[in-house]
Amino acid sequence: MTPAKPQRTVFFVSDHTGITAELLGKTLLTQFPDIELHKRTLPFVDTVEKAKTALTEINDTAQKEGQRPIVFSTLVNEEVRASMTSDNALFIDLLADFIRRLEAELGLESSHALGLSHGMGDELAYQKRMDALNYTLSHDDGMDTANYDRAKVILVGVSRTGKTPTCLYLAMQYGICAANYPLTPDDFTAHALPKPLLPHRAKLYGLTIQAERLAKIRRERKPESRYASLENCQSEIRAAAALLRQAHIPVLDTTTMSVEEIAISILHGTGLIKRLKS
């Protein structure tokens, strides 16, 4: 029997949405795969009162679990940040040290303004991301295949390999119109790419995953079903791999990858990263 992994609670505390704290914190935590993490996000902690409430939750968790939670913080306001200190948790401030070093190097004080990294900034860039997000939502899971001409990339693979969250991430973070198409047993019987994909072969990018991981994910959605059985997952993955190999479609194994890592790999693999920089 595989020994149970040690467990730890992780808090992401932010004076805004918490996206930055989550992104940076989760990136660091990927280096520790042998621990099971319970993640909680505490957004909009922008007053001393809210900070004290958040600290109470953190302290209560430490007392209940008998060990210190890990806290990733992106709080900008010094007074609010000071209200979050406690010996009952490991606090990792993801901004303060960098801001102090930048102030010293630039000879300037930072604005200490809340939420600037999440502002609308360039209106055209913001609108591009919103347009891409609307496109991706309406082209999820094989919907509206007639409008694939606008897609910059079309992710293909069996159900639950990470296609949808990756497309959404590409749209929100990079303004990329991304669609995805699920491969089903009917496609494997035909031994050919589905017809809607044929005119867009150059945009296709395959996602695969180890069968054991896929079965676990599917069991959370449909327990005790053939859809989630290990045997069926193995069969679908083999058939999808053969189909994509025959069509010369690049394939990425997402088994141990975060959505962020999948997205960056696709940007580099497709060459889209160069177009974003140009």
UniProtKB/TrEMBL annotation:
Entry superkingdom: Bacteria
A GO term for molecular function: ADP binding
Pfam families in the cross-refs: Kinase-PPPase
Annotated EC: 2.7.11.33, 2.7.4.28
InterPro entries for this protein: Kinase-pyrophosphorylase, PSRP
Enzyme class: transferase
Catalytic activity: [pyruvate, water dikinase]-phosphate + phosphate + H(+) = [pyruvate, water dikinase] + diphosphate; [pyruvate, water dikinase] + ADP = [pyruvate, water dikinase]-phosphate + AMP + H(+)
Keyword field: Kinase, Nucleotide-binding, Pyruvate, Serine/threonine-protein kinase, Transferase
Binding site for ADP: G157, V158, S159, R160, T161, G162, K163, T164
Family designation: Belongs to the pyruvate, phosphate/water dikinase regulatory protein family. PSRP subfamily.
HAMAP family xrefs: PSRP (MF_01062)
Biological role: Bifunctional serine/threonine kinase and phosphorylase involved in the regulation of the phosphoenolpyruvate synthase (PEPS) by catalyzing its phosphorylation/dephosphorylation.
Protein name: Putative phosphoenolpyruvate synthase regulatory protein
Organism: Candidatus Muproteobacteria bacterium RIFCSPLOWO2_01_FULL_60_18
